[in-house]
Amino acid sequence: MDVLIGGAGVGGLALAHGLIRDGHQVRILEQAPSLREGGAAVTISVNGAAALAGLGIPLEGVGGLIEEMEFCDANARVMFRFDMRVLRRRTGFPVVVVPRERLIAHLAWGLPADLVQFDRAVDTVAVQRRQVQVTDSQGDLHTAPVVVGADGHRSEVRRSILSPLEATPTGWATWQGLSRVLPELASGTKGRFLVGDAGFCGLMPAGDGLLQWWFHVPWSPTDPPLDAPVAWLRQRFARFAGPVPALLEAVTDAEAGFYPHVVHQIPDVWGTGPTTLIGDAAHAFPPSQGQGANQTLDDAWLLTRALELKGDPAELLRRYEARRAPRVRRVAKMAAAETTSKVPAAVTRFAVRLVPASVAGHAYLSLIRRWSSVLNGESP
Fold it and tell me: Are the C-beta atoms of 83 and 363 separated by less than 8 Å?
């Protein structure tokens, strides 16, 4: 089968691997002039790692290993911990934090050199009886029996086949970066998180001496842009203790990227006829649960399984969507509530201190299983 993918990001490249392995012909249209470089890091949890292995591109020896996650209040007092080694023992896969640029390079390795057509964003998609016509940003026409939109939360494929409505802001945003700072944390295996009235700060090792850092803060689309974000963060988080002051003294404005939090309404059906969506094109949601890339990889894994089957392509895509939509809705609902960015109630703080880290790890894995197709061995 000939499959045309819009977007050469994490989802598009991962899906291409699985489809090519299964004997499909694949083309990718990408709006950028080359594979994307830069950016911060991505958390690959056990479901994302399992999906990558299932697609034939296991992620081994890349990024920073996370064996513990520690949640603190603004005074750096520990509220609770997760033993992340539990997840590895139960699934066989670790939790790692990988620089996005390195992840993209890993996903691109081994793919045909001419697979991606650059400087060609999807412009319009027209579904016909036996094929789909795609017009790109240069005005050229492409046809394929199956088209998949993997072109992010501003997806042009989504606009054409599903809805012109954009993802909705949640009232929060993230300032984040990937820096060679705080070497003790950067060389370790612990993720550290602090929450207070100012917002949320996260710190996770990303391998090779790099530290992924971020701040979740309240935000409105009407807020003016910041010319000096690090100075603004220093002022806003001035009462935070622990590593936060040292971090904000060490990083620069050039390292800080800004990302508003948005969320899609996730319908039961993600396409028309032999078209569908994966990743943020289908279900953008905030990064507060660390599942954005992982849900994308879960999508790619199950969609590959769907297209292994015999039958009408449109029906196979609807079966894929029917499996994924309920799972993605669960994580999107939790992420959009932004509860991890807010100070927990006193009774909650007291209760969670009593929970052993290993028990918390088991509970977290149970939650991830509810979100994941690959960890449940799901069939379309």
Answer: no
